[in-house]
Write a structure and sequence with these properties.
extended; 6-stranded antiparallel barrel; 40 strands; 6-stranded antiparallel beta sheet; single chain
Length: 1951
């Protein structure tokens, strides 16, 4: 068996083909993966893929291409790097990272970046191939690498990756270079990326495409040039293109003849008044319309002109083609000025040459130097482009530039008629001729683009003796041909006759060089026109060259020629690097010919133009040193001055590029071996004269040239030593020492009187560092360093801070540190103390910080690792500048020095440099340095200050804004240095600041730094890619764990001082433990146990720890921190830690609370993610909100989540739920004047104002949610408040709003929602849903299928269960999501409203589906054997009743099921229910038909048909067969009553049908009469089948039970309403607003169990007047709850009984009973119940079946009987009393408004019927019920408690009892405020948070526009003034007056 052998060299490879890894231990590989090989065995490797190092396996050797690699840390933890070009390595790794991100771009639909990155990746791959092949030249390789790195940087920037520090295209290892150098590289790359360097050179690319015109036919010449309209002169040469007769280029194959580049435009040329001018000349006949003449002579004639501004090209798209309009001049003589006229818009002088004429041109501005353009626009240059130069030299003259161009502009001419009657047609021909009179071939250039010609013909102006041409030509004549050459201008008249000849009539000439060697001077010349009519006369140029050529240089006696009128004006301009027009320069260069002129020539040198001097720089220098060598005594000073002038000339930016020319001259051509003596002597003479000199300007000029003077001195001495073998060395050294002594002496002087030598000193110091390098050529390093030290040390120290010399000193130090001298360790140890002394002084005074930072950077970048001298230097630097460096960083980062506006940006720039210096210094510090540093502190205070400073600075360094976002490399280096330093300093902290010397501030600073360090985003390795994470871990490890261990260690050392950090450090340490690093969590979580232990010792509990943990958890987890693993770890670690503690139980409780909170917070965070559905978010928020209230009592968090839930509801347009949610906060407030602070979006205001604002907002949302009944209650409460303050304006608006709600209830349609039961099963659901069932209120129009689909969309991974059975434990524990959904039927608790007659359907519809606690689901099944002939015998119903924790609607659209009850309904009970429901349905339809509420009669027809037809076909007969047979009665004797009840219902149904048919006959239309007749016939058959001949007496005598409720005979409410003979009479009543809804389905209104208990409600009163004189229900009601309370309700006591204990007992649980015994955040609507003792006696009706309600007996004593219906078929119409109820008057206003605004709360009882103690009562908010309206049904009466008093649970506004009534009526008066307050306070469980604040005056709260409150109005005279009333209200109460339980601790100020 072969063994696996570790590989030695085979370490790294690339996968050539994909390997599936199907063998045992096989490692799957993909092509292109890189693998690290660990072992080898028989053709197999074992290793891992670098992108996933944890997965190791085997793979075949032949799948791998091996590559050479470099191995680090050989062994178990070795890392392998391929030994290839670093650019290749970077490309490979970067492309891998990009690959994954590139795919994500496609997923995120970022198409643009996706495609751009794709192209760049392909481009990089192509370039990578080129580099790998290795066939590139060195220069090409450099260009390719530069291109690659540019592309890599672009991609990294686009993808948000890190900036890569590079040097020469290669990545830099941050450990291999100093931190300062790393910072400089990063800063350079960052600045390059951020701000591209401005380009000073620009070029204009022009491509002429065509001329479009309708009247061509002749060839054209087009000239482009750049024109400065401000100076009225051209800036460039001309670009010349020839076009054919079609307007296209004549030579299309030669692109250089169509394209040009106008080069060397300066930034100043890109302005608005610089234009591109185009002149177009046609070649053809004299007149454009002439017929073709026979001579074929062609003339150049003007055609058109076009102009475009260069500034327009800066904004236009660079690739746009431009169509330039072509203009023609109106007068030919103005042709030369046409472009000026167009620019100045002199419209009268030009017009469009044709409507269709245009010049198609491509124009593009390019930026950068010409070499850069050649690289970037390679295609442009390879294809061919002509270069059009600028006139004259460019802004910067480069040495080696060769030009010799003479530009001549033919301006104008003046000619005589020559004996003709009309003016001539003059054409000028230009020739360049040499000395012999031969024409110079090809040296007349019209413009670039076309080759030069032998001659040039101007254009011809028709009949013009004073033509103006302004045509520019260039004569590029070589220098050696210039002497003796001349230019000749020949003038010809062009005849327009048939011959068309051109006749010579004169000429002019001009020589190019004068006899003394000077060229033709620049400027305008007026040339003489010599007469000549024969060409032969011009053959011999020697004859005419003797003639005068210019009128300006004619001798004075030659008046005849001067007087001639004929002249030619030309302008010449020479651009030459070899020829000069300056005579003084020529005199100096020829000094040997004229020795007597030497002095004069030297003096005039300073006046010569600089461009002339630099042209002849070498010749001039040779001349100067030649004169110095030959006559040094005489001319030494003048030569020195000339040399200084030339040296300073090169300082000019225009000529600075000639410095290398001078350097080359000194090195290679300078030959003055003896010059050094004279130069030293003269320089010393000047230095010695400085102190006495009155004027320092000249001496300063001399000192500015110090650098080059020393260069000449040193080079001269070297030449002399070389020539003489080193003679006179001592003499030279002596001279130099004397020179430096003079310099030191003058530097040591201070300003005296009027001789400011400071400026002269500054000039010398600026130049002095440049001398170091020259001195090193002749002196040793130590000698030069000594020179420098003594020279700098001689400077005066006592200087003012604002002295300019101080800045120059620092500049000199900067140059010194940058110099070659300082890099040598020998000289550095000499210079360092001087440098540090000056540096420290400046940093202490915070002056010149930019330069200080630069100096420090340079110094530290020279320090090398493990260098002995470096260690000593570190000692010096630490001692001198560490402290001041820390203070400087603090200063510049926190508050920049206000030392002037210019300093501020510098300060911002310099912070990073100082930081890099500090980091570099700390990195170089070792143990020894730290020990010495700490020993230097003589006192604890100094050490304390140092530690505080350095910890604060470290916190600054960790700030995210310290470095740019993509500087991860720099951040990691910084953190590595910080943690190293902290480990050193923590020892000092332990030794010096513990036990009795404990210093809280230092320790706190240390812990804060540690926490911030761990929480940095750049250390969160989990967020990085695998490759990046691997690199960081290999280089630095996980620094968070290291710092965490250090925190734990330091914490353990604190001992009893830990108490100082409890609870302050709980939040920070909690934040650390939330970092997703297991090791860090394991280290840090036990600290919480320690904190609990110490807090327990101190306080006996750890409430502070608990409170702080809970507060911080919410904010931290909402930021995305923490996970499920953390929750489990937190729980397990702490439980294990506290096992043996004495306080174990309370600890377990705390841990459990915190863990449960984490569960909910994690769910909340997951649900709040972007893209999650609103339903999930709302459900989770409700869960968390309830947790904060019920378990944690965290008031502020509770209120915050109320508003978060409110916002979610608004976003989802759940306006009703939003109202209920905001009510939770509204209930916590009272109508008081306590000032409230700003909170969330609320301003500072009084509690009254905030509650008012909340009321208005809630009302508005109830309105939007169409829940107007609840809105009415709040309107009343708010109206009462306005009334108590006499704010009648707002009172009016509130009443109008209340009225509008009534209108909306009656007029607008409201949809009844469906309800669905949803079960969430499986462990994959969030905690708040897991294995729970809910009932959800559906959206409008949403049915089961749509709801089911919505839920599956919200939970896309869920599986829909297809059955309604309860799931088993396997489903509960499954790692999946199961949804079980089916529709349920609401069971309204308030049947009273629904069963009243005459209540409109749109009122009932509200109560059917609102305030619902219970829901029902029926499942039919057959028990036993199914009878096929009659299935009713065995048809049972399984009825499931679900009770919710809160009623719907509420603060959510769904609530959890609290209890489920399962009941089986027998076939007989089911039959009873079916018939009951059908009877109810029939009654309803009949009533609607009678009252004409139906649009048509079809629903009634269909219902009658269905019932009668079914009965005929066996419907009711089946029931008879099933239940009326003898066998059934014998076998079920207990069902006797039920059988009787079924028989009654069947007879009742027949009775209803008979009456229904009577009504139907009255309203049936004519076309449906046959159907009606059929129904009547079938009805008789049905009666026969049932065996009914006539109805029993009890059916005839008793009224029919109607759904519209109890007849109110005593009130004459609706008599004869069912009489077919009489019309319907409806009495208007106010809507009962406080009822819960009834079941919306007729089939489920009454259960079988209820059938024995429930009958319709019958109400009677003494008289209708008595009923309607009862007072309205209280205006201060609250809104309805989501939960039903007890079925029976006890009415509230009268005001006289309020003090009784019984009343108190009734009320003490009002708030919780309103909602249910559970604690639920809902709200309640309070009615105005009446006290039993004051209820009127019911009217003694004659019907014995009417129940009697005795208020003096309790419910158990009463007999529950079925209540009869309110009508009978036999009831006569006269029984109806037509009196309508009078409008109820408002009760008289008595007592304090503050007392009367609150009415009494209702008494709520439990839902159990057995607990009832008083008759139930169902009042309306607008109408007080009499005791006659008492329901004996526990089911129906329960509606009162569930609906009436529900909103108190939600805390909206605790309602307040009955209102006052007149004493004439036996009704209760309004409650006093005292009792009211008592009830209000006792009814709350838990009570609202009540947190008081400072007393602020009441401010007006902003209201909705419809309810804006005007300024307060004066109170009416009769009632008491509002301020008096309010004063009474706000009087302090006795503590025992109104006890108010407050279980929630008052920790937060009132919100």
């Amino acid at each position: 068996m072969n063994m696996w052998i570790p590989t030695e060299h085979e370490k790294y490879g690339v996968v050539l083909a994909s390997f599936r890894g199907t063998v045992q231990h096989g490692l799957p590989l993909e092509i292109g993966d890189t693998v690290q090989i660990l072992e080898k065995c028989e053709g197999w490797y074992r290793g891992f893929v670098l992108k996933n190092p944890n997965a190791k396996g085997i793979f075949p050797c032949n799948y791998i291409h091996l590559k050479n690699a470099h191995i680090k840390n050989k062994g178990q933890f070795e890392t392998v790097m391929p030994t290839e070009d670093s650019v290749i390595t970077e490309m490979t790794s970067t492309l891998r990272d990009w690959g994954a991100m590139w795919k994500q771009l496609f997923v995120k639909n970022e198409g643009d970046l996706f495609h751009r990155l794709w192209h760049v990746m392909n481009e990089i791959l192509d370039l990578r191939r080129q580099v790998l092949v290795g066939h590139l030249t060195h220069d090409r390789m450099r260009d390719v690498k530069q291109h690659i790195t540019a592309r890599l940087d672009w991609g990294n920037e686009q993808l948000g990756l890190d900036l890569v520090p590079r040097r020469e295209f290669s990545m830099v290892d941050p450990d291999e270079i100093s931190v300062t150098e790393l910072y400089r590289l990063m800063e350079h790359r960052h600045r390059k990326k951020e701000t591209p360097t401005p380009v000073s050179t620009h070029h204009l690319f022009v491509h002429l495409k065509s001329l479009m015109s309708s009247n061509l036919g002749e060839e054209l010449e087009v000239f482009f040039f750049i024109y400065d309209s401000r100076e009225n002169k051209p800036l460039s040469e001309r670009f010349f293109v020839k076009l054919n007769k079609n307007g296209l280029p004549k030579f299309p194959e030669k692109t250089e003849r169509q394209c040009t580049l106008f080069v060397d435009l300066g930034s100043g040329d890109l302005r608005k008044d610089v234009y591109i001018v185009v002149h177009i000349i046609r070649i053809g006949r004299m007149g454009a319309g002439e017929k073709k003449n026979t001579s074929n002579v062609q003339y150049r004639r003007p055609f058109g002109c076009a102009v475009v501004s260069i500034a327009d090209l800066l904004t236009a798209d660079s690739k746009d083609d431009h169509l330039l309009k072509v203009y023609a001049c109106n007068t030919e003589s103005d042709w030369s000025q046409t472009h000026d006229n167009i620019i100045k818009k002199v419209n009268s002088r030009y017009n469009l040459s044709g409507s269709n004429t245009g010049l198609a041109v491509a124009l593009q501005l390019l930026h950068g130097d010409i070499e850069q353009l050649r690289r970037e626009y390679m295609v442009l240059f390879t294809r061919g482009v002509s270069i059009t130069k600028k006139l004259g030299f460019s802004d910067v003259i480069m040495p080696g530039e060769m030009r010799n161009d003479l530009y001549i502009t033919l301006e104008k001419g003046e000619f005589e008629k020559g004996g003709k009657s009309v003016a001539r047609n003059v054409e000028v021909t230009v020739y360049a001729l040499d000395t012999d009179g031969q024409i110079l071939k090809g040296f007349v250039a019209v413009g670039s683009g076309e080759p030069g010609g032998d001659e040039y013909h101007t254009f011809v102006l028709y009949h013009n003796n004073s033509p103006r041409w302004s045509e520019l030509i260039k004569l590029p004549i070589p220098v050696d041909m210039f002497r003796g050459s001349h230019v000749r201008f020949e003038f010809r008249h062009c005849s327009t006759k048939d011959k068309g000849e051109k006749k010579l009539f004169g000429f002019s000439f001009v020589p190019l060089m004068q006899e003394d060697g000077r060229t033709l001077p620049d400027g305008t010349h007026e040339l003489i026109v010599h007469k000549c009519e024969e060409n032969a006369n011009l053959q011999d140029c020697a004859r005419y060259l003797k003639l005068p050529f210019s009128k300006s240089n004619l001798p004075g006696n030659n008046q005849t020629v001067k007087g001639t009128k004929e002249s030619l004006w030309i302008t010449s301009f020479l651009c030459s690097t070899k020829l000069t027009q300056n005579g003084d320069m020529l005199d100096l260069l020829k000094w040997r010919a004229h020795p007597e002129r030497i002095s004069d020539s030297l003096s005039k040198l300073k006046e010569i133009d600089g461009s002339e001097i630099v042209k002849f720089l070498q010749d001039t220098l040779d001349t100067l040193f030649g004169i110095l060598d030959e006559s040094s005594q005489r001319y030494a000073l003048k030569v020195f001055d000339c040399l200084v002038h030339i040296i300073n000339l090169l300082q000019d930016s225009k000529f600075e590029h000639f410095k290398p020319v001078m350097d080359t001259y000194i090195e290679s051509h300078f030959a003055g071996a003896l010059s050094y003596r004279d130069l030293i002597k003269v320089l010393k003479w000047y230095v010695d004269r400085i102190i006495e000199a009155d004027r320092q300007e000249h001496i300063q000029q001399v000192l500015k040239a110090t650098e080059y003077i020393f260069k000449y001195i040193i080079q001269s001495r070297r030449l002399f030593a070389l020539a003489t073998g080193g003679q006179s060395e001592e003499e030279f050294r002596c001279c130099m020492h004397e020179l430096f002594m003079s310099i030191r002496f003058f530097l040591s002087q201070e300003n005296k009187g009027s001789r400011p030598i400071t400026q002269t000193q500054a000039v010398f110091l600026q130049q002095f560092p440049a001398v170091y390098g020259e001195l090193l050529k002749l002196f040793t390093v130590r000698e030069v360093a000594t020179f420098v030290r003594e020279t700098l040390g001689s400077l005066p120290t006592a200087s003012q801070a604002d002295c300019p010399l101080e800045a120059v000193k620092l500049h000199c130090i900067t140059k010194t540190v940058e110099s070659q001298l300082y890099t040598n360790p020998e000289s550095r140890c000499i210079l360092l103390p001087v440098v540090l002394r000056l540096l420290q002084a400046h940093m202490q005074e915070q002056r010149d910080l930019v330069m200080c930072a630069h100096i420090l950077t340079c110094m530290l970048s020279l320090l090398k690792k493990d260098d002995a001298t470096a260690s000593e230097e570190v000692d010096l630097i630490v001692e001198s500048v560490l402290g001041v460096l820390l203070r400087t960083i603090l200063e510049v980062s926190n508050r920049p020095q206000p030392a002037g506006p210019t300093l501020r940006p510098q300060v911002q720039d310099v912070t990073g440099e100082f930081v890099s210096c500090l980091l570099a210094l700390l990195r170089h510090m070792k143990d020894r340095h730290y020990q010495q540093l700490l020993q230097r502190f003589t006192s604890k205070d100094d050490l304390r200050d140092f530690l505080l400073h350095i910890f604060t600075v470290f916190r600054i360094l960790i700030r995210p804004e310290m470095f740019p976002k993509d500087w991860t490399v720099m951040r990691l280096v910084t953190n590595n240095i910080i943690i190293t330093t902290v480990l050193y300093l923590s020892d000092a902290l332990r030794k010096n600041f513990l036990s009795d010397k404990f210093d809280y501030k230092v320790w706190d600073s240390y812990f804060c730094l540690s926490v911030i360090f761990i929480n940095q985003s750049c250390l969160q390795l989990e967020t990085f890619s695998a490759s990046k994470r691997k690199k960081i871990l290999e280089k630095y490890g996980d620094m968070r764990v290291m710092m965490g261990c250090e925190i734990f260690s330091m914490w353990q050392n604190l001992g009893e001082h830990k108490l100082n950090f409890i609870p302050a450090m709980i939040g920070p340490f909690l934040e650390v433990t939330l970092v997703p690093q297991p090791d860090l969590r394991n280290v840090m979580i036990p600290i919480f146990h320690d904190m609990m232990d110490w807090e327990q010792r101190r306080s006996g509990n750890f409430k502070q720890v608990e409170a702080k943990l809970i507060d911080k958890l919410d904010s931290l987890m909402s930021e995305g921190k923490g996970d499920e693993t953390y929750r489990e770890l937190f729980n397990s670690i702490l439980l294990k830690k506290i096992e043996r503690e004495t306080w174990r139980e309370s600890g377990i409780s705390l841990i459990a609370t915190v863990t449960r909170l984490m569960e909910r917070l994690l769910d909340y965070r997951d649900c709040m993610k972007l893209g999650e559905v609103d339903g999930k978010k709302i459900g989770c928020t409700v869960s968390l909100l309830n947790f904060y209230k019920t378990e944690l009592n965290k008031e502020e968090m509770y209120i915050r989540y109320i508003h978060k839930l409110y916002d979610l509801h608004l976003k989802a347009q759940n306006y009703t739920e939003a109202s209920y949610t905001l009510l939770l906060y509204d209930e916590l407030l009272e109508w008081s004047e306590r000032p409230l602070r700003e909170f969330l979006s609320y301003p500072m205001q009084s509690e009254w104002q905030r509650k008012e604002y909340l009321h208005l907002t809630i009302i508005q949302n109830f309105d939007r949610g169409k829940c107007w009944e609840n809105g009415i209650i709040l309107c009343r409460e708010l109206a009462d408040q306005y009334e108590s303050y006499y704010d009648y304006r707002n009172l009016s608006k509130m009443r109008m709003m209340e009225a509008s709600f009534y209108d909306k209830i009656m007029d607008q349609q409201r949809l009844e929602p469906e309800f669905f039961r949803v079960g969430f099963y499986g462990k994959k659901f969030p905690f708040f849903l897991r294995n729970k069932e809910f009932v959800c209120r559906g959206h409008d129009y949403e049915r089961l299928e749509a709801f089911q689909q919505r839920m599956l969309n919200e939970f896309p991974h869920a599986i829909a269960m297809q059955h309604a059975n309860q799931p088993d434990q396997t489903i509960y524990q499954a790692e999946a999501q199961y949804l079980q959904i089916y529709a349920v039927t609401p069971i309204p608790d308030s049947q009273d409203v629904l069963q009243r007659d005459g209540v409109p359907d749109n009122i009932k519809s509200f109560y059917k589906v609102n305030h619902i606690w219970r829901f029902r689901y029926d499942r039919p099944f057959h028990k036993g054997t199914k009878d096929k002939e009659n299935e009713f015998k065995s048809l049972w119903v399984e009825r499931t009743t679900l009770t919710l924790v809160q009623s719907l609607p509420g603060i959510s659209r769904w609530f959890e099921v609290e209890r489920r009850e399962l009941v089986e309904v027998s076939p007989l009970e089911n039959a009873i229910e079916v018939i009951e429901n059908k009877n109810l349905q029939l009654r309803t339809l009949i009533t609607q038909c009678q009252t004409r509420q139906m649009q048509n009669i079809n629903p009634l027809t269909m219902c009658l048909n269905g019932v009668i037809d079914a009965a005929v076909n066996g419907g009711l007969a089946r029931y008879q067969e099933a239940f009326f047979v003898k066998d059934y009665i014998m076998n079920h004797p207990e069902d006797g009553d039920k059988i009787g009840r079924l028989r009654e219902l069947m007879f009742e149904q027949a009775h209803i049908l008979e009456f229904g048919l009577t009504v139907h006959e009255k309203f049936v239309p004519q076309d449906m009469r046959p159907l009606h007749k059929k129904l009547v016939d079938q009805f008789h058959l049905m009666k026969s089948s049932l065996g009914i001949q006539e109805f029993p007496a009890y059916v005839r005598a008793s009224p029919i039970h109607f759904t519209n409720g109890s007849p109110r005979a005593g009130r004459n409410s609706a008599p004869n309403i069912m009489n077919p003979e009489g019309g319907a009479r409806v009495v208007s009543r106010r809507s009962p607003l406080s009822y819960p809804a009834v079941n919306r389905y007729s089939s489920s209104s009454l259960s079988s169990q209820a059938s024995n208990e429930v009958s319709n409600i019958t109400g009677q009163s003494e008289s209708s007047d008595e009923v309607f004189n009862m007072q309205p229900s209280p205006s201060t009601s609250s809104l309805s709850s989501n939960h039903s309370a007890s079925p029976n309700v006890t009415s509230s006591a009268p005001s006289s009984a309020r003090g009784s204990p019984q009343l108190s007992d009734k009320h003490k649980h009002s708030r919780e009973n309103c909602l249910s015994p559970r604690e639920r955040p809902c709200s309640a609507i309070y009615p105005n119940p009446l006290d039993p003792t004051q209820r009127p006696v019911p009217h003694p009706a004659g019907d014995a079946s009417m129940p009697r309600s005795d208020p003096n007996i309790s419910t158990p004593d009463k007999v529950v009987k079925p209540a009869p219906s309110s009508w009978s078929l036999d009831m006569p119409p006269s029984d109806f009393n037509g009196k309508g109820p009078p409008v109820p008057p408002r009760p008289p206003y008595t007592g304090s408004p503050a007392k009367t605004t609150r009415s009494q709360s209702p008494v709520m009882t439990s839902r159990s019927p057995q607990k009832t103690s008083a008759p139930p009562f169902t009042p309306s908010p607008t109408e007080c019920q009499t005791t006659g309206l008492v329901s004996n049904s526990p089911v129906l009466s329960g509606s009162y408690s569930s609906g009436i008093s529900s909103l108190s649970r939600c805390s909206v506004s605790e309602a307040s009892g009955t209102e006052n009534t007149s004493t004439d009526h036996a009704l209760p008066n309004s409650a006093s405020s005292g009792s009211d307050e008592l009830i209000r306070r006792e009814n709350k469980t838990p009570p609202p948070y009540s947190i008081h604040e400072r007393n602020n005056p009441r401010r007006q709260v902003p209201l909705p526009p419809s309810l804006s409150i005007p300024p307060s109005i004066d109170a009416p005279p009769i009632p008491p003034k509002p301020h008096q009333i309010r004063r009474q209200d706000t009087e302090p109460r006795r503590p025992d007056q109104f006890p108010r339980p407050r279980p929630i601790p008052r920790k937060v100020s009132q919100l």
